[in-house]
Amino acid sequence: MKGNIKKFLNLIHHGDKNLFFLFNHKIRCKYLDIIMPKITHLGGATFSLFVCLFFYLFGKVEAKSAALEAFITLTGSQGVVQFFKKTIYRKRPYLDLPNVNTFWKKLLKDYSFPSGHTAAGFSIAAIFAFYFPAYSYLIYSLAALVGVSRIYTGMHYPSDVLSGALVGTLFAFITHALTGTNGF
User: What is the CA radius of gyration of the chain?
Assistant: First the structure.
């Protein structure tokens, strides 16, 4: 049983590396080299908090509720992300693999699993999709692009991104179930 689990994990890691190099090397082009490092910041702390603050200060009642829920979701999901990063200790791809394309001079030294940027993107996307379902395709597409950008820029493996999306979405569902539509 133990050997089968190890084989399964090795298979996943091998597939993860192959998918990583597909996004980080094979689809690389000068246009994506310009766009992806900018898109990745949509999942960063500054932009995520700005979105919540902007909609809370300038939005109508529904937007204010969504912003407050998104902030709660962000806080909870990022706590879970940090717990896993400090528990699993997965090195970032550029620290673990050869010839990784990166786009910054100063690279992160923390751990890779799960992707906090992706968790933030999906935390906000899911909450705002609850309140504004007509925009859900657009909102989720932006969150997914943040995740792809994290792989493209060499920061995360695909499984880091998928797990970040799951954490963010799951926290949004929990937050919305506990606080949503009841108002604040």
Answer: 17
pLDDT value at residue 50: 95
11 inside domain = yes
| Both structure tokens of 1 | 């049983």
Can you read off the two tokens belonging to residue 49?
A: 């908090």
CA angle in degrees (0–180, nearest 5) for 48-49-50: 90
Query: Which pair of tokens denotes residue 48?
Result: 């995520």
Tell me whether residue 184 is in a domain: no
Residue 72: give the domain boundaries. 2-179
Q: Express each pLDDT in 80-97 by its tens digit.
A: 999 999 998 888 998 888
Which pTM does this prediction carry?
A: 0.89
Local structure of 27: helix, strand or coil: coil
Say what the alpha-carbon torsion angle 61, 62, 66, 68 is, to the nearest 10 degrees: 20
- DSSP assigned state of 182: T
Q: How far apart are alpha carbons 42 and 40 in whole angstroms? A: 5
Instruction: Give the C-alpha distances (Å, rounded to integers) separating 20 from 32, 65, 119, 147, 154.
Output: 15, 37, 18, 12, 8
Lowest model confidence (mean pLDDT) among 14-23, 54-63, 111-120: 14-23
